[in-house]
Design goal:
With about 280 residues, the chain is of the alpha+beta class. Helices cover about 25% and strands about 20% of the residues. Pfam families: FYVE (PF01363), SOS1_NGEF_PH (PF22697).
Length: about 280
């Protein structure tokens, strides 16, 4: 299916439209051999609450962004190489249904489709693209992935000390290693986490202890860059939980309760395009 669409005019037009919708806020997406496989709206679990995001599945990358004007304008573009992605299906729980995890070494998060059928379609198409990429490149899928952050509203108190209540002054922070919501004193340590950043990141005391013990078992020559332990003020804004979730900002787009099914471009459209081309040659 994808191979047949590589050089099609329809594929080129679709990619150009995606670039136009992101405008100057996005990066160029047209590349030799790149195909837009599908697109649609998914609900992304953000730090504060679930929010609708526009997703575009290409044969080598997954792109998503904030919806400014539905089908016309998007911003805060994120581009994820598919060869770094691992999917993990989620069980339905209460209002959160038809979901799965998108995991990479630098960031992991949950998304939810409107129906079980749409979930199956999205996951099947993404998995197929990943499988094709890895087969062609000969690479192995990544073995380590960033933790999925626990949403703020699921933690009224620190998940480490079980005591500190979060207030305007006692802010929530996220451990970059396990994703737990913790208070400032319980996340005062830093550690370099390969795949996420070259700089030391905030980790909870439990993960810091685990990483320290693990480091002691690894030969010096095989160790990653040295960690930088120091204490940060509990209310400091320099390393707040929002720093790594830039698409969690408030949306400016008005609420749209209508639902459009995702579009996946396949053999049917290719056949139609071929027929149109043949009819032009006949004329």
């Amino acid at each position: 299916m994808v191979d047949r669409l590589v050089n099609s005019e329809a594929n080129a037009r679709r990619i150009a439209m995606v670039e136009n919708c992101f405008g100057s806020s996005g990066q160029p997406l047209a590349e030799q051999g790149r195909v837009l496989v599908g697109e649609g709206v998914l609900t992304k679990m953000c730090r504060k609450k679930p929010k609708a995001r526009q997703f575009f599945l290409f044969n080598d990358i997954l792109v998503y962004g904030n919806i400014v004007i539905n089908k016309k304008k998007y911003n805060k573009q994120h581009v994820i190489p598919l060869e770094e992605v691992k999917l993990e299906s989620l069980k339905d729980e209460g209002q959160y249904r038809n979901g799965w995890l998108i995991r990479t070494a630098s960031k992991s998060f949950a998304v939810y489709a409107a129906t079980a059928t749409e979930k199956e379609e999205w996951m099947a198409h993404i998995e197929k693209c990943i499988e094709d990429l890895l087969r062609k490149s000969g690479k192995q899928p990544p073995s380590e992935h960033a933790a999925v952050w626990v949403p703020d509203n699921e933690a009224a108190i620190c998940m480490h000390c079980k005591k500190t209540q979060f207030t305007v002054l006692n802010r929530r922070h996220h451990c970059r290693k396990c994703g737990s919501v913790v208070c400032g004193p319980c996340s005062s340590k830093r550690w370099v986490l390969r795949g996420q950043s070259d700089k030391p990141l905030r980790v909870c005391l439990q993960c810091y202890d685990d990483l320290t013990r693990e480091r002691a078992r690894v030969p010096p020559l095989a160790q990653p860059a040295a960690h930088t332990p120091h204490t940060a003020a509990a209310g400091s804004g320099g390393d707040s939980s929002a720093d790594d979730d830039s698409d969690d900002d408030d949306d400016r787009a008005p609420a749209d309760h209508s639902h459009d099914e995702p579009k996946f471009y396949g053999d049917g459209e290719k056949t139609e395009e071929t027929n149109n081309h043949s009819s032009k040659e006949t004329k």
